Amino acid sequence: MKKLLLLFVAALTLASCDTDDDYSSNFTYGVLPTEVADIPEGMEVGKIYRITVDYIRPTDCYSFYTLDYKRSTEDIEDASGELIDTQVRTIAVINRIFIEDDCEELDVTTQVYFDFEPISEGPYVFRFWVGEDEDGEDIFLEYETVVLE
């Protein structure tokens, strides 16, 4: 029994000593600006809508990873000045960026999508990240839509 335990500990020690793990250091993540998004002007509760998002992929070292998607509710002023409880969705395109010296320049428009199912009626605002202004404040493309029952 002691020999089996010693063999197990030795195998575990040898397997855990591999320090040549560069996988986690050969890429990073970055947010890329949205060029345009396709949002329906009107929606219905319970129906599923495909929302497409276009962004520029600068080199072949960029690879789509995910969409950062945040839900919130805000009081937004309508045309008459009345505050309306509004569903807000903030979206940003996240890419994995491989750190290599031989990246090929692309500057190609890439399209990704997500499926959206509104769960309540009322106004919705979709905000897509496009960059930062000179003060470091985020800038968004905004699309408004109304969801009906």
Task: Summarize this entry quickly.
This is DUF4625 domain-containing protein. The protein is mainly β.
Helix fraction, binned, reads under 10%
CATH architecture descriptor name: Sandwich
Instruction: Using the CA coordinates, give the radius of gyration.
Output: 23 Å
In total, the number of domains comes to 1
- Tell me how many strands there are: 9
Explain what the structure shows:
- With 149 residues, the protein is mostly beta strands.
- It has one domain (27-148): Immunoglobulin-like (Sandwich).
- The chain has one helix at residues 2-15; strands at residues 27-32, 34-38, 42-44, 49-59, 62-77, 83-98, 105-116, 122-132, 138-148.
- The protein starts with a helix and ends with a strand.
- This is DUF4625 domain-containing protein.
List keywords for this structure.
about 150 residues, mainly beta, Immunoglobulin-like, 6-stranded mixed beta sheet, 3-stranded antiparallel beta sheet, 1 helix, about 10% helix, elongated, disordered N terminus
Strand-helix topology:
Layout: H1 2-15, E1 27-32, E2 34-38, E3 42-44, E4 49-59, E5 62-77, E6 83-98, E7 105-116, E8 122-132, E9 138-148
Parallel strand pairs: 3-9, 6-8
Antiparallel strand pairs: 1-6, 2-4, 4-7, 5-6, 8-9
